[in-house]
Write a structure and sequence with these properties.
One of its GO terms (molecular function) is electron transfer activity. Pfam families: Fer4_21, FeS. Keywords: 4Fe-4S, Cell inner membrane, Cell membrane, Electron transport, Iron, Iron-sulfur, Membrane, Metal-binding, Repeat, Translocase, Transport. This is Electron transport complex protein RnfB. By secondary structure, the protein is mostly helical. The protein folds into three domains: 3-69, Electron transport complex subunit B, putative Fe-S cluster (3-methyladenine DNA Glycosylase II, Chain A, domain 3), CATH 1.10.15; 73-192, Alpha-Beta Plaits; 195-220. It is 47% helix and 6% strand. A hairpin with a 7-residue loop joins strand 2 (101-102) and strand 3 (110-111).
Length: 226
């Protein structure tokens, strides 16, 4: 697998991390393209412009967007939570690929609009149906536009960094959880010995050591004893 080629394809993708391509993020999709496990036209947010760039990079003919994966938006969107209906279930927080939703269990959640990529992965998990995708005129020109400016690239780079940080955080939390579960599994067998039995074991070990010391002293030559 060519890591450089993967990096170059990932740099073209919009970094919405929406999973509409069928993969768990832009990077996995780029890897699948290089491995031959995905076509170049499965990214609706990237639109025809993105397909064209990937085709040029790979030196292959371009093709139209596969609309089985969705359609490109005509404008940039951002998630919005009706906070009066939010019950604090945290499902949206868990589903956000860039940690753009903050809140705590049983408390109101809110979207950090500047960090939201418009992926809409938070909409379906919400049991209260209180999340909507609304137009965000503050964002840079949308990904379907023919103009690619510095603001757009900066937004993509930022989203990529947040996505990568989240992946690292989740991996770290899983390792910590695994260690905790392993410790919980081992400890019961270690604590099954009652305090009384433990005391007897300690005393027996002490007596054994004392007997060994006496035996060693008795076996010393008389010249040494004197």
């Amino acid at each position: 697998m060519s890591q450089l080629l993967i990096e170059n394809i990932d740099a073209i993708l919009p970094q919405t991390q929406c999973e509409k391509c069928g993969f768990a993020g832009c990077r996995p999709y780029a890897e699948a393209i290089v491995e031959g496990g995905a076509d170049i036209n499965q990214c609706p947010p990237g639109g025809q412009q993105g397909i064209q760039k990937i085709a040029e990079l790979l030196g292959i003919p371009t093709k139209p967007l596969n609309t089985m994966h969705g359609f490109p938006r005509s404008h940039q969107v951002v998630a919005w939570i009706d906070e009066s209906l939010c019950i604090g279930c945290t499902f949206c927080i868990q589903s956000c690929p860039v940690d753009a939703i903050v809140g705590a269990a049983k408390q109101m959640h809110t979207v950090i609009a500047d960090e939201c990529t418009g992926c809409d992965l938070c909409v379906t998990p919400c049991p209260m149906d209180c999340i909507s995708m609304i137009p965000d005129d503050r964002k840079a020109t949308n990904w379907v536009s023919t103009s690619v400016d510095a603001a757009k690239k900066q937004a993509a780079d930022k989203a990529r960094s947040r996505y990568q940080f989240r992946q690292q955080r989740i991996a770290h939390e899983k390792r910590i959880d695994h260690k905790a579960r392993t410790k919980e599994f081992i400890q019961p067998s270690q604590t099954q010995i009652s305090p009384e039995v433990r005391k007897q074991v300690i005393i027996a070990a002490a007596l054994k050591r004392a007997a060994a010391i006496r035996a060693q002293a008795e076996n010393k030559p008389d010249s040494i004893k004197k």
